Amino acid sequence: MVNYNGQIVDDKELYLNVNNRGLLFGDALFETLRVVNGKLIFWEDHYLSLMSAMRILRMEIPMSFTMEFLEGQILMLLPEEQKTRSAKIRITVFRKNGGLYTPESNDVSYLISADPLTNPYYILKEESYEVELFKDFTLSKNMLSNLKTNNRILNVVGSIYAKENGYHNCLMLNDTKSVAEALDGNIFLVKGNVLRTPPLGDGCIKGIIRKKILDILNKVDTYECLEESISPFELQQADELFITNSRNGIQPISKYRKKTFGNIVARDILGKLNAAARFN
After folding, report:
1. N or C: which terminus of the chain carries fewer CB neighbours within 10 A?
2. How many angstroms separate the CA atoms of 90 and 97, rounded?
């Protein structure tokens, strides 16, 4: 089931048509988050991210789009028995039908979908997780690259490349050949007690888990965290590499080319992230 403009419809129904601007032009954006026991995890951050992206894309934000309204729309989608469990939520916002590249209106529609999760909080996956660089295409270093829009063809092609070559994921480069992010999340590099992640100016997604980890690390003395460009040559010199997103929290990378990595720091930070999720 999905929530389409406030109406619960079967996900097999034809509730979108050929004139949908998200389909025709990728004129859409999305936000992904977790719901645990009826609680939206890091909801304020996700909400502000969604509103900011809509403003940047010059979408008209309805007066009704308050935090409380959208929270209610999300929870309305979940059956009573699921409200005591956990689910992954995706909110997609797209401009209403009409126009070519220039839309007839900046008014929006929304679509909310939910998929069940097996674990209420983030867990560390111990199995092998190998990555490689994806060098066929690069990310642009601009504000649009920071947004979670439906224009993700680079990620699709990169994911096909990873599957064809037996990798679990790939790291993407920007147009100045710095490591920007993974196909499905932000990248962190650990060397000693110093963690580094590419700055938003390098073209990475403005991920909420990335933001929460930066917030957490800025409050502890154990680690130093820097937003700095990462060269591909630095990857094999790292002690740890990990990927962050709202679906998994933290995904440690176990192998890149001939280098294998541990996950001690990733495990420690994951515990702090779960603690922050419980009390946000």
Report:
1. C
2. 21
Q: How confident is the model at residue 78 (pLDDT cuts 50, 70, 90)?
A: confident
Closest CA to 149 of 19, 34, 58, 15: 58
Residue 193 near residue 264, CB atoms below 8 Å: no
Short-list 123, 121, 129, CA closest to 262: 129
What contacts 268, CB < 8 A, 6 or more positions away? 222
Strands 259-260 and 249-253: unpaired
Note the pLDDT of residue 81.
Answer: 57
Query: Strand order in 86-95's β-sheet?
Result: 7-9, 2-4, 108-116, 86-95, 28-36, 39-40
User: Using CA atoms, how far apart are residues 175 and 140, in angstroms rounded to an integer?
Assistant: 6
Host H or E run for residue 255: strand 255-256
At 83, is the pLDDT very low, low, confident or very high (cuts 50, 70, 90)? low
Which of 176, 177, 131, 139 lies closest to 155 in space, CA to CA?
Answer: 139
- The residue written with tokens 């590499």 in the block is 241
Task: Assign domain 2-116 one CATH number from 3.30.470.10, 3.30.70.100, 3.30.200.20, 3.40.50.150.
Answer: 3.30.470.10
- Span 3-35, pLDDT tens digits: 888 888 887 777 778 888 888 899 999 999 999
The CATH number of 130-279 is 3.20.10.10
pTM: 0.93
User: In the structure encoding, which two tokens stand for residue 223, read together?
Assistant: 């680690």
Quick one: tokens of 57?
């894309």
Radius of gyration of the chain from Cα atoms? 19
Q: For residues 148 and 29, is the Cβ–Cβ distance under 8 A?
A: yes
- What's the whole-number mean pLDDT along residues 73-87? 78
